[in-house]
Design a protein that fits this description.
Length: about 800
């Protein structure tokens, strides 16, 4: 076909329109200053280029050597070894599981093994058995049982290391250098301390909780996200228990790099050349959102890796795969991988209908002998791999997708309304969505302009080129990427939720590099170079966490100083752990960044609606103190600038400051005269249980009771502590005897013993006290407002103080 054909003219016309739109958008931008990310890329590519010139090794081999040296310099050898051990163990396990049923790449073996190991860790999380020894044995077992597969994987790895550049063109080597420089950036940022919001609130909180308590609580009343799909968090927990925070962050970055390899393979499968496959990986790695996913401990990289592998398996269940038996194998594999994706993130449920449509459109290719058995096994794999978190959530909360769609499921742990995402990000797709994603990125993510990457400006041109090329494989990839984006944006237009579309569209953007009849090579190279440059300049646009600071990498003191300056609450967590020796719950009136806390964090936010309601309802300092003590809270972390004055004053009134970091104040709940009873002054009957015909006069705030009709209140106690039980009472009619009574109960609610003292009443109000010690096995006490005879008494206040 002639170069200057109608197809070429159409592509050129769309490209010119995109350039015009992009030029207008760029005129509104300010070029960001040089940052640590771009400096790291420049330094890495320079170092690797020099090494490449003086050796015959590939840039990838040299990159591995450079990263090994950096891990030694920055004292991160053990985390690197643990992550490598996890990857090797997962690959061997996946290879053993799949055997000869699927002609899969090593990355598929790794994902199958990683998903299986993570699923086992998720099941173990229900029991207090999660210790480093367990996971050391878990990672060693596949290599011991599958030593033949281990040898095969070792040979393949050795072959890659010993490879030379003889089969590569200089241009391909240049692309490899750039890819490796981004890999260095992603690994170095993983060496940095964690300062991300989502990570410290959830994705690092879960592994640290597992390390401290050796199990996960699955308590949705304390953490609203406690029963959500968390396969990636279970994977992070495995390496966290063996090598700590850095190992978890390295695992996350490794998934991002694995995605680059998957994009490379999908490009080759779709008919791309070796050069265009490199372009696809480079476009993806240079995207600011891809860097954002590695700059903090997110789960989208792991989720997208499962989605990409499952999507490619679905696409191979078609006439694109000549062998019918292999199509059926791919169908089985797709069920397992998409099940792992479901167990990682519930957004998968929005994408599955798109993949189902693609599968149905290809029904003639897979409707062959043996399909019934394959569909049954594939469905079983999907359910076994993906349904566990939904079944668990349904059992524990009454809502399998808690807290979403609670207007349908009516879980008592959440209001009967549907959980809504932030309105900031909007919904749906409009004619200018691509433009707004690039130049108005804050409407789609917590980032700055350019967060989505500038490749979206070229996507219309690439899509038209693919459509005109007649490449059916590419058309299917385009359909899945666009369909996933449409379905997800229908619920919420949030960029992290369409990360799989970013990966798929990287393939679409690179494929025209292979078809010079529609997309001239020189024009493709210019467009590619400009795209990589602009993405690199804006590499930090999608994150506030990706800074690389050498002092924080070189020493523990530098690391602590960085955290003290960058995120003091992380240092505050260490202080709390030192003082909170009983690992009791800590009330947090600050940002929920409490990963590493030894004990539960009580957040007065939507994370914990029940506790928020209790805190908001406390109308006085004494009532607030009572509610805190009922929750067994001794320590409070308060952001002095985040609370309304009235609520802050009450918190300050019931506590004493022990440590201060900027606006963060660590305070201890006052012990002296602490009141355990709710409504001790009888301002209302909340907390009290009355026995008919005892009476309560709300105007005078007086209880009238006798020995047969007492009023009672149950409160929590700590065994061995001293308490003072006092009452203010008088005779209601004639002189009689009153009673101070406390019945002690154990954890099962069984009666232990009663502490009773009597007193003679008069016509005047008098206060009577009884000092008691909670028995060793007591967890609660029932306080009585009672007479000692049938003659009534009046009570105007009761107290049970520690």
């Amino acid at each position: 076909m002639p170069r200057y054909s109608l197809k070429y003219a159409v592509v050129l016309l769309v490209l010119l329109a995109s350039v015009a739109v992009g030029a207008y958008g760029f005129s509104t931008l300010e070029l960001p200053p040089m940052n640590s990310g771009t400096r790291t890329i420049l330094l890495s590519v320079t170092s690797l280029a020099v090494l490449t010139v003086f050796t015959r090794r590939t840039p990838f081999t040299l990159c591995l050597g450079l990263l090994a040296c950096l891990s030694v310099v920055f004292a991160q050898v053990w985390p690197m070894m643990v992550v490598a051990l996890f990857g090797l163990s997962a690959t061997v396990l996946g290879r053993r599981m799949l055997k000869q049923h699927s002609k899969a790449d090593w990355s598929v073996h790794l994902l199958v093994g990683a998903g299986t190991l993570g699923s086992l860790a998720g099941l173990a999380a229900y029991l207090p058995i999660n210790y480093p020894g367990l996971y050391g044995a878990l990672l060693s077992l596949p290599m011991l049982l599958g030593h033949k597969h281990l040898v095969a994987v070792g040979r393949e790895l050795l072959g890659h290391i010993q490879a030379t550049r003889s089969a590569q063109t200089p241009f391909q080597t240049g692309l490899d250098l750039l890819i490796c420089s981004f890999a260095c950036l992603y690994v170095l940022v993983a060496f940095m301390p964690e300062v991300g919001h989502d990570a410290l609130a959830m994705h690092l909180f879960v592994p640290s909780h597992m390390a401290q308590r050796h199990q996960w609580s699955f308590d949705a009343s304390t953490y609203v996200w406690a029963v959500m799909p968390m396969l990636a968090d279970w994977i992070y927990s495995i390496v966290y228990l063996l090598a700590g925070e850095t190992a978890s962050r390295l695992t996350n970055s490794s998934f991002t790099l694995l995605l680059a390899w998957q994009i490379h393979n999908m490009t080759l499968w779709a008919g791309g050349s070796a050069t265009s496959a490199r372009w696809a990986s480079l476009i993806f790695l240079s995207t600011p959102l891809a860097f954002a996913e590695s700059s903090s401990l997110h789960i989208e990289s792991a989720w997208t890796a499962f989605m990409m592998a499952g999507t490619l398996a679905i696409l191979k269940v078609s006439s694109f795969t000549p062998e019918p038996g292999e199509r059926l194998s791919q169908l089985l594999l797709a069920g397992l991988l998409l099940g792992f994706a479901m167990a990682t993130k519930a957004v998968t449920l929005s994408v599955l209908p798109v993949l189902l449509v693609v599968l149905l459109l290809q029904y003639k290719a897979w409707a062959v002998q043996g399909i019934a058995r394959t569909l049954l096994l594939g469905s079983a794999g999907l359910i076994l791999a993906g349904a566990t978190p939904y079944v668990s959530a349904g059992y524990l909360t009454g809502n399998p997708v808690f807290p979403f769609f609670n207007a349908i499921f009516h879980s008592p742990l959440w209001p009967n309304v549907n959980f809504e995402p932030p309105a900031t990000f909007g919904r749906g797709i409009t004619w200018d969505t691509l433009y707004r994603m690039v130049f108005k990125s804050p409407e789609f993510i917590e980032g700055r302009v350019g967060a989505a990457g500038f490749q979206w400006l070229l996507l219309p041109t690439a899509a038209v080129a693919v459509l005109l090329s007649g490449n059916r494989k590419a058309l299917c990839i385009l359909l899945v990427g666009a369909g996933a984006m449409f379905m997800t944006f229908h619920s919420t237009a949030y960029l992290r939720y369409v990360f799989p579309s970013f990966a798929l569209f990287s393939v679409i953007l690179a494929l025209p590099f292979s078809d010079h009849t529609i997309y001239p090579r020189s024009l493709a190279i210019v467009a590619g170079v400009l795209l990589i440059l602009t993405n690199t300049c804006f590499i930090h646009a999608a994150t506030y966490y990706g800074e690389i600071k050498p002092s924080a990498l070189l020493s523990q003191a530098g690391r602590e100083a960085y955290l003290l300056e960058r995120l003091p609450i992380r240092r505050m967590v260490d202080t709390v752990n030192t003082l909170n020796t009983g690992d009791q719950p800590v009330a947090v009136f600050a940002s929920p960044l409490m990963a590493g806390l030894h004990g539960d964090a009580l957040y007065a936010s939507w994370y914990n609606l029940k506790w928020k309601g209790e805190f908001d309802a406390a109308a006085s300092s004494s009532e607030l103190a009572q509610r805190l003590r009922a929750r067994r809270v001794n320590w409070l972390v308060i952001d002095l600038k985040s609370l309304p004055p009235a609520r802050l004053d009450r918190l300050l009134d019931v506590s004493t400051s022990y440590a201060r970091l900027g606006d963060l104040d660590l305070r201890k709940l006052n012990v002296a005269h602490y009141e355990h009873l709710l409504n001790p002054e009888l301002s209302s009957l909340e907390g009290w249980s009355l026995t008919s015909p005892s009476s309560y006069d709300p105007s005078r705030r007086i209880l009238t009771v006798n020995v047969r009709t007492p009023a009672t209140q149950r409160v929590e106690v700590t065994p061995g502590l001293n308490y003072t039980n006092s009452v203010s009472a008088r005779c209601a009619t004639t002189a009689t005897t009153g009673r101070i009574q406390a019945n002690w109960m154990d954890a099962q609610g069984d009666f232990i013993a009663a502490s009773i003292e009597t007193f003679d009443c008069t016509k005047q109000w008098e206060t009577h006290e009884m000092n008691v010690v909670a028995p060793a096995n007591a967890t609660a006490v029932i306080i009585y407002a009672s007479g000692h005879t049938d003659t009534p008494l009046e009570f105007k206040s009761l107290s049970f103080r520690q």
